[in-house]
Amino acid sequence: FVNSFLSMTIDLEVAKVFSGAGAFGPDSPVQSVIFEVEWADSSPKQGLADIHRLSCDHDENEILFSPTYT
């Protein structure tokens, strides 16, 4: 169960930066993971908030995912 908002981006390159992709060697027990989230509705009204205009860094293309969204 997730009890806080999840921060996501629509930009794969931004996701790679935040995930630390490439920061760990192939034999390291710690590895970066990037999840791809898809939803059926192309313009969801509930559960997701596009906040890139409110962000200090607009280039992050940040979206918040609500923990109560089903």
Provide structural commentary.
It contains 1 helix and 3 strands. The chain has one helix spanning 12-19; strands at residues 6-9, 48-50, 62-65. It is globular.
Using only CA atoms, what is the Rg?
14 Å
Q: Tell the overall outline.
A: globular
Task: State the helical fraction.
Answer: 10-25%
Order of helices and strands: EHEE
Strand order of the largest sheet: 1-3-2
What's the multimeric state? single chain
* Largest pleated sheet: 3 strands, antiparallel
Element layout with pairings:
Layout: E1 6-9, H1 12-19, E2 48-50, E3 62-65
Antiparallel strand pairs: 1-3, 2-3
What features would you highlight for this structure?
1 helix; three-stranded antiparallel β-sheet; alpha+beta; 16% strand; 11% helix; 70 residues; globular
Short structural summary:
The protein is built from one helix and three strands; from the N terminus they run βαββ. The chain has 70 residues and is of the alpha+beta class.
